[in-house]
Design a protein that fits this description.
The chain is mainly beta. The protein has 5 helices and 48 strands. The protein starts with a helix and ends with a strand.
Length: 746
């Protein structure tokens, strides 16, 4: 009784003695989901707070009855609210016109914050895409860690991730795989970003969820959606002084639950060769500049989508079209320079997808995807008279070609995503059927099917621990697919998030590797029907730390990986200039990466580095290093000036020397390497007319890199000249964006 009286007296006297009053604040979105890392400023004291993973923050009212809070987070409207002392305060943030990386969806049971995801997910948001003035996926990935870009001016741009080639990276658009790999890679320069809201990258095997081609990771491009605007019109114009002229536009109309969107555009590039004038044109002898090392290219693209909003879900149908022409004009033939040979490469894509998602009772989710993708590549060779401009199609069998690939994707899943329970799970099916047609395909047509079921469980034995085991069983029509397991662990300790994963991977050889012959003046690649499937063991470890120091937010991330592949498929020289795909046995990569980011008001600085080791196959029979190592460094600096609505952005990356070993013509071991190089871009942007217009200008490739020395044992591509193309020297660009929207609520 006496204790009760004492407590009552203390509570009554607290205001008089200025004892602090602590209150918990919850920051939520419109769906009542927590918003982690929201910025909170207490106006009266200028105290700066950061919400935790559950969207909560502790407010000290001290001796005040109320405080004025300013809450902000990327992708949401800034909110200022006066709050009184209360046991529980909830503040709801409204989505901004453009929602940026509030949640991630790749590999998740439902929309989830990246901080809570069991995998380490890198997000390239729309702001970064805009500040880089990136046109296609190649532009934006060239600044990412652990990503190495390669360039073939006929086959396009490829990539390596974690030291593994592009055959092992699955590229998706809204969860649908992109069809049409040449030499194992999807051409990154064909993937335009005009309607992309963000890019989600998961490094490490995702074979349980996405099957074959996902040993190294998954890149998922999330397209834009109309956020309740009755009318939204966007137009972009991009010009670069090397002869790049792009124009695209989109229109979206919304009425109650229905949204109809159209987008289309044209990208034009007139080609480049070292020595081209930076501005204007030099006087040259007729036809002497018709040959370009970077080939002239013209792209037309369009997309139409219909979205019907359900209660707790939606139905979306998308129809996309892409048409590209690459012109490979030959040099005038000796002795008189009156004739030449010209090649033209045409790529056509038609993509259809229907995606249905629905929430049941807020914690159960169903999703179904049906997609059909049609890809066609046509090559024509002409003998051209440069005096009359008459063109005659050549009669050589290898000069003309039409190759077609189509793909059916049927995915479905059921999952639970309730935060208050210890166990959530996902079960799903994944069917992929690919067909190839053409005279360069063995027997003119080939087909491969992959029919799979997968399941995983998220178990929370403790509040800060998530354990996710998973398994995939698949039937492949050409290869016996093994059961593929994986396990992910996420542990939160204070301000540290620890993540660990192990996965077994499987990749069946593609139809191109098995049956496709690609022979022309530049290439001589033959398919191999005796290939074995690749299998892998993959381990990833990472930890990240977030620290608030006054008004500074410091984020540090350290990660490491190890990949071991059995029966690695690679391109090897058979004889002379002929190359074919072969299994070379085991292959390994490992590496470590450190990223640091600091934010202060409108200033952001990012510093990072990585060190990747690649296994030398010849070390098994010769006295050479088992691994060759390559360093990478990256730095990004961004500053936004709020009042003039101006930003300055700088992007830098050092790509280290890529060493290795090969055999010369006498079967003697020689050192091979591709030299290191530096790239940097600078952008300055300004908004006008109540943010309806943005003008961005700047320079790309400030260090004027064009090609780097490449010393290697042969190449599948003739005319390499001992160098590898990187870029077209220093360039200057101007981009203008017009954005008009009419809100039905206004």
């Amino acid at each position: 009784m006496n204790n009760s009286i004492a407590i009552t007296v203390i509570l009554m006297l607290m205001p008089f003695f200025g004892i602090s009053q602590i209150t918990t604040l919850s920051i939520l979105d419109e769906e009542k989901k927590p918003v982690p890392n929201a910025h909170i400023i207490v106006k009266e004291t200028q105290q700066f707070l950061l919400s935790d993973l559950d969207g909560k923050a502790t407010i000290n009212f001290q001796d005040k009855d109320s405080l004025t809070l300013e809450i902000s987070f990327i992708g949401f409207e800034k909110k200022t609210q006066k709050v009184a002392v209360n046991n529980r305060l909830k503040i709801i943030l409204k989505e901004d016109i453009v929602t940026l990386n509030s949640f991630v969806i790749t590999g998740q049971y439902a929309e989830n914050s990246p901080e809570k995801a069991v995998q380490k997910i890198t997000i390239i948001d729309q702001k970064k895409i805009e500040k880089m003035a990136a046109v296609n996926l190649r532009d934006v990935l060239s600044n990412e860690m652990n990503v190495r870009i390669s360039q073939d001016n006929i086959l396009g741009s490829g990539m390596n991730l974690q030291g593994m080639s592009g055959e092992n990276v699955k590229i998706l658009v809204d969860g649908v795989p992109i069809v049409g790999r040449l030499n194992g890679n999807v051409d990154l320069s064909q993937i335009n970003l005009n309607d992309v809201e963000r890019i989600e990258i998961i490094e490490g095997p995702m074979s349980v969820n996405y099957g074959t081609n996902a040993l190294a990771g998954v890149i998922n491009l999330i397209t834009k959606t109309n956020k309740g605007k009755k009318l939204n019109v966007i137009a972009n114009s991009y010009n670069e002084n090397i002869g790049q002229y792009n124009l695209d536009a989109s229109v979206s109309v919304s009425n109650n639950k229905q949204t109809l969107s159209f987008t289309g555009g044209r990208n034009y590039f007139d080609g480049w060769i070292d020595g081209d004038a930076t501005f204007g044109e030099k006087e040259r002898i007729a036809d002497s500049t018709r040959y370009k090392s970077w080939k002239p290219k013209e792209q037309f693209f369009g997309k139409a989508s219909y979205n019907y909003q359900l209660i707790g879900g939606n139905i979306k149908y998308t129809l996309g079209y892409f048409d590209e022409k690459i012109s490979n004009r030959g040099l005038p033939r000796k002795p008189y320079g009156e004739t030449t040979f010209d090649d033209y490469y045409y790529t056509k894509r038609i993509d259809n997808s229907l995606v249905i998602s629905k929430k049941i009772k807020n914690d159960k989710n169903i999703k179904a995807t049906i997609a059909y993708n049609d890809y066609k590549r046509i090559k024509n060779t002409f003998f051209k008279d440069l005096t009359t401009l008459e063109e005659i199609q050549t009669e050589n069998a290898g000069d003309q070609d039409t190759t077609k690939f189509n793909q059916w994707v049927i995915r479905s899943s059921f999952s639970t995503s309730k935060d208050s329970v210890k166990v959530n799970y996902e079960v799903g099916t994944d069917i992929n059927i690919e067909e190839a047609f053409g005279v360069r395909i063995e027997n003119s047509t080939q087909k491969m099917g992959d029919y799979a079921a997968y399941a995983s469980i998220e178990y929370r034995p403790f509040n800060n621990t998530i354990l996710r085991p998973g398994v995939r069983y698949a039937y492949n029509t050409n290869y016996q697919a093994p059961i593929t397991p994986s396990i992910n662990l996420k542990q939160t300790i204070g301000k540290f998030n620890l993540r660990a994963s192990y996965a077994r991977g499987f990749r069946a050889p593609s139809l191109k590797e098995l049956y496709f012959d690609f022979v022309d003046i530049n290439h001589n690649i033959i398919g191999n029907t005796d290939l074995k499937a690749e299998q892998s063991n993959n381990i990833n470890l990472s930890t990240n730390y977030t620290k608030l120091i006054k008004s500074y937010v410091l984020k540090m991330e350290l990660s490491t990986f190890y990949n071991q592949i059995e029966n690695l498929i690679t391109l090897a020289q058979n004889s002379g200039t002929q190359y074919s795909y072969v299994n070379i046995g085991d292959y390994e990569t490992h590496g470590i990466q450190l990223n640091n980011n600091i934010s202060f008001n409108h200033f952001k600085l990012g510093l990072g580095g990585s060190y990747i080791g690649r296994y030398n196959q010849l070390s098994e029979t010769a006295n050479i290093d088992r691994f060759s190592y390559t360093p990478e460094l990256r730095s990004n600096i961004n500053y936004e000036f709020p009042k003039p609505q101006l930003f300055v952005a700088f992007f830098y990356k050092f790509t280290g020397k890529l060493p290795g070993f090969g055999l010369d013509a006498n079967n003697e071991i020689i050192q091979t390497y591709i030299e290191s190089y530096h790239t940097a871009d600078l952008s300055i942007g300004k908004q006008f007319w109540k943010k309806r217009m943005q003008v961005t200008f700047g320079s790309k490739n400030l260090f004027d890199v064009k090609a780097v020395n490449s010393v290697a044992q042969g190449s599948a591509h003739s005319g390499s000249g001992g160098s590898s193309p990187v870029a077209m020297g220093r360039t200057y660009f101007l981009k203008m964006t017009f954005n008009f929207s009419y809100d039905k609520n206004n």
